[in-house]
Amino acid sequence: MKVPVENGFVTQTGEVGWHYKRDAVARSVRSLQGITGVSNQIKITVRPDTLKLDQDITHVLHHSWLSDDHVEVTADGGKVHLTGSVGSWMDRNVASTMAWSAPGTTSV
């Protein structure tokens, strides 16, 4: 992973296997003294089983308080697409967070 700094602006590049690691790296430098901005260009490198990824996310949605009845999950590689309707912005954020937490998700 490379982290060049120019005039207080950090550009992070590299590869990690999980979305939470990508976010953790960005959070870790934001609070450092002298940092004025962060560009997080770190890529997620997991090569998921698309069918299993669909099933994993659908399973999690089904077993949460957020019903999966109105949310359809499709995946192409690690790119997860959620379609449908939910009752609130909070429900939308919960569905997105659940999709990001599935192993192999590279974008939602």
Radius of gyration: 16 Å
Topology as a string of helices (H) and strands (E) = EEHEHEEH
Could you list the spans in which at least 5 consecutive residues all have pLDDT below 50? none
Classify the oligomer.
single chain
How much is the average pLDDT? 79
Q: What is the helix content?
A: 25-40%
Structural class, from helix and strand content?
A: alpha+beta
Q: How many DSSP helices?
A: 3
| Distance between the ends | 23 Å
Strand proportion: 25-35%
- When the domains are counted, the total is 2
Shape assignment: elongated
Strand order of the largest sheet: 1-2-3
Largest sheet: 3 strands, mixed
According to DSSP, the number of beta strands is 5
Account of the protein in words:
With 108 residues, the protein is an alpha+beta fold. It has 2 domains: 5-44, no CATH class; 50-101, no CATH class. It is built from 3 helices and 5 strands; from the N terminus they run E-E-H-E-H-E-E-H. The strands form 2 sheets. Strands 1-2-3 form a 3-stranded mixed β-sheet, with helices on one face. Helix 1 (19-30) links the parallel strand 2 and strand 3. The two termini are 23 Å apart.
List keywords for this structure.
alpha+beta; two-stranded antiparallel sheet; single chain; 108 residues; 2 domains; 3-stranded mixed beta sheet; 28% strand
